[in-house]
Design a protein that fits this description.
By secondary structure, the chain is an alpha+beta fold. It is built from three helices and six strands. It has two domains: 56 residues, no CATH class; 72 residues, Beta-lactamase Inhibitory Protein, Chain:B, domain 1 (2-Layer Sandwich).
């Protein structure tokens, strides 16, 4: 048992007392560290449960076909998976158009000026070909050479 000073009247009061015997002021008990730790642990458990149930209910299926997602197969097909596979790095845009049979829609273009004797100018253009069902191919050309391609949902 320790003696502390009452915050109201300044008289000495035992830490065991619930109120000051002199002025009657209610003495606040210090909350133990164990109480704070237990409250924090309980809060973490509750938050974890909430996050688990929210994620479980809101999870969206993967866009991978093996997860059950299927592209509709209706409408005009501008680009096929077979054509996509025939398109190779290093090909020119006109060669890619020849394989696909249609011009792509330009979606971005940038140019970086070169430094004479150090680096040539670099022009980057990205095209896309989109089928009516949403399946598509994107292709990035630098100085008219294919450097990257990607597809989604092609058949």
């Amino acid at each position: 048992m320790a003696i502390v000073e009452c915050k109201e009247c300044g008289k000495e009061v035992s830490t065991e007392a619930q109120s000051c015997p002199n002025c009657g002021a209610v003495l606040k008990k210090k909350t133990s560290r164990i109480t704070y730790f237990a409250a924090a642990l309980l809060l973490l458990i509750v938050l974890g449960a909430v996050v688990f149930f929210i994620n479980d209910n809101l999870s969206t299926p993967s866009s991978k076909p093996e997860a059950g997602f299927k592209m509709p197969s209706i409408g005009e097909q501008i680009i096929t998976f077979d054509e996509y596979q025939r398109v190779q790095d290093g090909m020119s845009y006109s060669k890619v158009v020849g394989i696909i049979g249609a011009r792509g829609e330009e979606i971005s273009r940038s140019k970086m000026d070169g430094v004479p004797g150090v680096m040539e100018s670099l022009e980057t253009v990205m095209y896309q070909w989109v089928n009516s069902n949403g399946s598509n191919m994107n292709a990035m050309f630098q100085n008219d050479k294919l450097v990257q391609k990607a597809q989604f949902g092609l058949k």
